[in-house]
Amino acid sequence: MKKDWKKKRRFRQSFARFLQKVLRKHSKTGKYNGPKGSFAILAQEKFGDAILLTPLLKNLKTFFPDSFVTVITFSKAVSGFFQSDPHVDAVYYTKGNLIHYSSSVLFQKFDILFNTKDNPSISFLIQSQLVPARCKVGIQNEYHTGIYDYLVKADFHTPIALKNCGLLELLGANVRKKQCRPYIPPMTVSESVRSFVASMKKHTFTGINISAGLPTRQWTEENWQRLVKAFPGDTFIVLSAPGDIEQKKRIEQECGNVFPSPETKNLHEANLILEKLKLLVTPDTAMVHVASCANTPVIGLYGKAPQDQSRFGPFLIDYRMVTSATPLVRDIEPEKVIGALREIV
Predict the structure, then answer these.
(1) DSSP label at 273?
(2) Mean pLDDT for the chain overall
(3) Which end of the chain has the least Cβ crowding within 10 Å, N or C?
């Protein structure tokens, strides 16, 4: 598996080197002073990345209210995430209807295209060339030099939300850090979640999110139960993805201080619950960023990779970060998380 990953990375880098030799663009310095009437934003594939893109979208509409913002996605789920975003005018899925995508995107001309990837990606590099735009912008790294007209300059470990908002500085917009808080677009809310949220007393419950997007980021059910049982005087709410509902129900049944909650069907429903919590404990996953949207303190469980902690860590909220000695979140001892929870509450 590791060899395959390294092979794919080398292929992406080789493809970027090829484009650099063919295009040989000299990236411009200073501010972009050209037209800012239309934007094509290449959005990354995961929900966490989508959430961290929202500050840029909001600020584009704030500083350039008459502009037309198009989000181009590489994931059907992320395409759905942006469909109801009030700061987005159009959403297109690259793998959807080819005729519709071509006529609506490839046969148009945007003022500015922005690639949000800060590392070489074949799909993003190809779309960067296919989508017509007067000015094409990437994030600075050695594999983007010579491919884009402008490069957003940011240290690799800069939080992703701020890195995305680096485009605004290039456009001459002065954006403060606190203006870069992410948000969750409005989505359908079930009656069960609506009623549950209405009944919640704010800052009464501690939340635990037991789900993670990757197996390497999951904490064990036994550890979650040990954490909850270490605080018999507190009341917990368990959040989970649909695939972990049975585990959620077991924890609710076996821990006397867990208050049963309805299943959430989307991130907007989760966000409504998080807004009422006093704290969330979660593995390194999109829920860390939902906590930033809700302005809810968080304890994040991370593997030892420093780039995951710096680039995708909690943002604009009070937090504690508990790090594994290995790449696996499940290797974090419960005592470390218990200690962090005692420290922050």
Answers:
(1) H
(2) 96
(3) N
Rg value, the chain, Cα: 21
H/E element, 77:
helix 76-82
What fold is seen in the domain 191-344?
Rossmann fold (3.40.50)
pTM: 0.95
pLDDT of residue 319: 97
Among left, alpha and beta (phi > 0; psi -120 to 50; other), residue 202 is beta
Give the C-alpha separation, 10 to 223, whole Å. Answer: 38
Contact in structure between 311 and 158 (CB atoms under 8 Å):
yes
N residues, the chain:
345
Provide the residue ranges of all domains of the chain, joining segments of one domain with +: 19-178, 191-344
Question: Using CA atoms, how far apart are residues 22 and 296, in angstroms rounded to an integer?
Answer: 48
Is the C-alpha dihedral spanning 313, 294, 119, 97 positive or negative? Answer: positive
**Structure tokens belonging to residue 219:** 């904490």
The CATH architecture that domain 19-178 belongs to is 3-Layer(aba) Sandwich (3.40)
- In this structure, which long-range contacts are made by residues 166-170, counting pairs with CB atoms below 8 Å and at least 24 apart in sequence? 166/139, 167/56, 167/112, 167/114, 167/137, 168/56, 168/59, 168/60, 168/63, 170/31, 170/32, 170/137
